Amino acid sequence: MNTFDAIKQRHSTRAFSSKQISEQDLEDILVAGGQAAIGCADFDSLKLYAVQSPELLAEIDAASANGNPTSHPLYNAPTLVVVAAKKGFLENIELSNAGCIIQNMMVLAADRGIDSVYLWMAMMGINGNAEVQKKLGFPEGYTCVGSCALGYADKAFPKLKGEGQRLDVKVIR
Ligand SMILES: Cc1cc2nc3c(=O)[nH]c(=O)nc-3n(C[C@H](O)[C@H](O)[C@H](O)COP(=O)(O)O)c2cc1C
Question: What is the CATH number of domain 3-151?
Answer without folding.
Answer: 3.40.109.10
